[in-house]
Amino acid sequence: GRSFERMRQELSRALDAVLESRRDLAARVAERTAELETLYHALRRRDESRGHLLRRVIGAQEEERKRIARELHDDTCQALTVLGMRLDSLQDGCRGKARQGLAEARALAQRTTEGVHRLIFDLRPSVLDDLGLLAALRWLASRYLEPLGVAVRCEVEELDARLPSEVETALFRAAQEAVGNVARHAEARSVAIRARRAGEALEITIEDDGRGFAPADAMAAAPSGRGLGLLGMRERLALLGGAASIDSSPGHGTRVVLRAPLPVAAGHAHA
């Protein structure tokens, strides 16, 4: 009994340390986000050029995502791995309810580790850097929608060359917000994702047959944070000289169209 009590206390301290690390990380993320927002508004007040503003804001945001992903990998994941190994060691010396309790704690640690890994990948998916925007759009469908049983159709018109990184990043984050909203709220049965050249712009359309919503209500940012994602989507594309339009109504699905100007050298070829 004394031995199990010591094990329980060690486990409790380890879990408390992990939770404290996560709280500290969340506080730093919030602080850095506020700094980036301050930078964004300061740059706008100084009326810097659109291109420079785009690189500064989006670049800072993406660098912060990378930094957070590295910290999660190096600190939180390692702490969870050590915790799991310790639980395995303790479990070998226990029997009965004590062993069952440690097994449950080990399963919880494993699920938490898997959740952190998913968060790391969402912060900066390697497919965007390695394969480009169009491959990343297909990844969004497989990551967010297919596990829910949503039927997804992707129609992508390939470009001859990669877009500038800031353009790919802004379009990807806007598409990620739109697809994430479908997964969280739409209750859709099918989704169509299309990317095509429209004149001198790249147009990405995400259309679902879900329950829809009133765009005016959703775009009104609330203290809870509701609506900030859609506003951020429009702001990102406005920095590119592009736009985002949302066509939806309750009970009639949603159609989101993202547009950004293409560089002169970006040709196209049908896949």
Can you lay out the helices and strands and say which pair or pack?
Layout: H1 2-45, H2 50-92, H3 96-123, H4 126-131, H5 133-145, E1 151-159, H6 165-186, E2 190-198, E3 201-208, H7 215-219, H8 228-239, E4 243-248, E5 254-261, E6 268-270
Parallel strand pairs: 1-2
Antiparallel strand pairs: 1-6, 2-3, 3-5, 4-5
Percent range for helical residues?
A: 55-70%
Sheet of most strands: 6 strands, mixed
Number of strands: 6
The secondary structure category is alpha+beta
Subunit organisation of the chains: single chain
Tell me the overall shape: elongated
Helix-strand string: HHHHHEHEEHHEEE
Estimated radius of gyration: 22 Å
Enumerate the spans where pLDDT stays under 50 for 5 or more consecutive residues. Answer: 267-271
**Gap from first CA to last CA:** 66 Å
What integer is the average pLDDT?
Answer: 80
Strand order, main sheet: write it out.
Answer: 4-5-3-2-1-6
Query: Beta-strand level of the residues, as a percent range?
Result: 15-25%
Q: Tally the helices: what do you get?
A: 8
Descriptors:
disordered C terminus, 8 helices, 271 residues, alpha+beta, 6 strands
What does this protein structure show overall?
With 271 residues, the chain is α+β, with helices and mostly antiparallel strands. The chain is 64% helix and 16% strand. It has helices at residues 2-45, 50-92, 96-123, 126-131, 133-145, 165-186, 215-219, 228-239; strands at 151-159, 190-198, 201-208, 243-248, 254-261, 268-270. Strands 4-5-3-2-1-6 form a 6-stranded mixed beta sheet, with helices on one face. A hairpin with a 5-residue loop joins strand 4 (243-248) and strand 5 (254-261). Helix 2 runs antiparallel to helix 3 (96-123). The chain is elongated and about 75 Å long. The protein starts with a helix and ends with a strand. Mean pLDDT is 80; it is low at 267-271.
